[in-house]
Amino acid sequence: MAVRLPPMQALRAFEAAAREQSLTKAAHSLSLTHGAISHQIKGLEEDLGVRLVERAGRGIRLTDEGERFARRVRTAFAELSAAVTELNTRANPRQLRVSVVPSFAARWLLPRIGRFVAAYPDIDLDVRANAANIDFANDDSDVAVRYGYGDWPGLGVEFLLEDHFFPVCSPRLAGGRLPAHPADLAGHRLLRSVDEFWKPWFEAAGLDWPEPERGPAFNDSSHLVQAAAEGQGIALTRTTLLGNDLRNGVLVRLFDIELPSQRKHYLVYPSRTANSAKLAHFRQWLHDEIELERSLATPIAPRVAPKRRKVDN
User: How many CB atoms sit inside 10 A of residue 218's CB?
Assistant: First the structure.
């Protein structure tokens, strides 16, 4: 008797939940709602007549049956993804699919992409902006650029470049009356990022201040930089997100105090593309662009407080 297979969307929801150990993270990775993921998994359990997932604090854990099923589903998806990738590659051998974090795509990659097209006209670059953890088993991307700690087991991982944090703002902020010392930041609106914090920089600047709890917050670093450029406050941002804004005067750096980021940018790819000529060209182009940026970089003079005129009594 033929076995009726569960719906593909239910299997994908279960695989994502098993991988992330969280319905919320699974929903984010599939661009669905928490409720949709939960509904798909419940339907899958009803179809199979087996309990696959159970609650564990704020997250979930798999039952023994769920663990075994997840391994088989993951293997099946990997095989299916490989088959689709192979088919797509044969259909369009010129295409290179690149997964990039949205902020890096907007602020670093896209302003330079014309030079890649000019240098490699035979490669059709397909850029996908995606902040989720890269999963090449369920994604047909050929390569990814990710910002993290370099811990992607089972994948090719190559260091690209590092970042440093420092405050920037529009030269028009407060009518041009910009803070001259770190302590002067107390009189200005500080723009916040949801996962990159001011307090470590405060400590490097000798300020015993808590993390700001008020003011606009952004979950996309490129939006943070744009808000600063529009004069909406002072942003603590990273070198790779500034593009030409410092050279063009759209933004100004306030102080010579900078803090190295614990995370760095890496090129990440699966074994199936490790020896790809397209990947080799993209890798070389990235390194060429990084070297070009370094050669154009000019030392930023620290801002100093204006000298007070001596007044005779």
Answer: 18
Q: Cβ contacts of residue 78 below 8 Å, gap of 6+?
A: 137, 138
Percentage with pLDDT > 90 across the chain: 60
Q: In the predicted model, is pLDDT for residue 303 greater than 60?
A: no
* Strand pairing report for 259-269 and 143-148: antiparallel
- Residue 59 corresponds to which amino acid? G
Domains and CATH numbers, the chain: 8-88 (1.10.10.10), 93-304 (3.40.190.290)
Q: How many C-beta neighbours within 10 Å does residue 146 have?
A: 24
| pLDDT tens profile 217-239 | 998 899 999 999 999 999 999 99
Distance CA 162, CA 148 (A): 10
Rounded distance between C-alpha atoms, residue 269 and residue 3, angstroms: 36
Q: Where are the alpha helices (H) located in 92-231, listed in sequence order?
A: 102-104, 113-119, 199-204, 221-229
pTM for this one?
Answer: 0.67
User: What tens digit of pLDDT does each residue of 105-122 get?
Assistant: 999 999 999 999 999 999
Q: pLDDT over 70 for what percent of the chain?
A: 90
CB atoms within 10 A of CB 79: 11
Query: Per-residue confidence at 29, pLDDT binned at 50, 70, 90?
Result: confident
Contacts of 42 (CB under 8 A, 6+ apart): none
User: Can you tell me the distance from the alpha carbon of 161 to that of 168, in angstroms, rounded to the nearest whole number?
Assistant: 20
Contact 43, 10 (CB under 8 A): yes
Could you identify the residue written with the tokens 């060429």? 288
Tell me the pLDDT tens digit for each residue of 122-136.
Answer: 999 999 998 877 888
List, in order, residues 6 or more apart from 272 with CB less than 8 Å away.
82, 85, 136
Maximal CA-CA distance, the chain: 105
Query: What is d(CA 123, CA 219) in angstroms, rounded to the nearest whole number?
Result: 32
Q: Name which of 71, 268, 260 is nearest 151 in CA terms.
A: 268
